[in-house]
Amino acid sequence: MRVALVHDWLTGMRGGERCLEVFCELFPAADLYTLVHVPGSVTPVVERRRVVTSFVQRLPGAATRWREYLPLFPAAMARFDFAGYDLVLSSSHCVAKAARPARGALHVCYCYTPMRYVWDMYPAYAAAAGPLTRLVMPPAAAALRRWDRAVSRRVHHFVAISRFVAGRIERCYGRAAEVIHPPVDLARLPLASGDPGDYYLVVSALVPYKRLDLAIGAAARLGRRLVIVGTGPEEARLRALAGSHVEFLGWRDDAEVAALYRGCRALLFPGVDDFGIAPLEAMASGRPVIAIAAGGALETVIPLESEEEAPTGVLFREQTVEALAAAMRGLEGAAHRFEPKALRARAEIFDRPRFKARVAEYLDVRLAERGAAATC
Fold this sequence. Notes:
With 376 residues, this protein is an alpha/beta fold. Helix content is 39%, strand content 15%.
């Protein structure tokens, strides 16, 4: 069986790339198609296969400014040829779902979200754009929404990363989706053995919808130390907001991030996220989470008010500095209720081997159904 993996872009190891790594392990001989590939930016498991890139790869500054070429992504995807592949497995939060399978082939999309730039998160991205970009965004976004809805029909089966995203897929595409939560790699996250440190932690891409301005504002209001790991287009604006209590570390490798998790007081997660791997990584390390009570966090964080299960964090209801600061005070007052072994036990439900087994089982079922239909 010939398999094609399709991923939006390969420019760093984030949650989507962790899932792609598992797909690469399941299909070690698969070819990998992507818009842009920055060599060395992903793990050897991903790097060592045949990687096919689009014409976007050859455009000026594509390695760092690929997002600026968003209007060209549909044309770039259309030039990929998937003839000869029996299974197309797309890993998509942008345009990878547009892969057109050959006649008789199966296309399964593991969907992180419908294209957030033009659907749910469009207002946040538009507000953060420059004047010229804001001028051209409305017609461009409308065209991309029409295209995105149309190409969703090329997918035979959607798999969503959360119930939250499954709801988006139904709203945007009118399609049902199975839910298989993404993995957290407990093997690279040792459990904390000592008392927590004096800092709160953020591990995130620095983009508008993550609402890291709230974390900076709440830490300033309470006089708490805040450490931010991550890079992204919001960095300059966030640095301008931050005072001496905030430390920006940029990108850090897995071992450094794991150590930061173990040493933090808690992870701050103020943005409405599709799922959120960072909260599970913090829990796996034995540290609690403070998260907005929306999106994927509702599927992973057990709130302080729970009477049935050991709590793993504090949920706050409004995306305001005041609400986040109150949640931080609440966590500090209930620190004795967060037991590291119970936090890790919660993360174990989402461990990487379980994810790998679930994906393999799901694909086996769908391929068997496809084969049975072909013989009828």
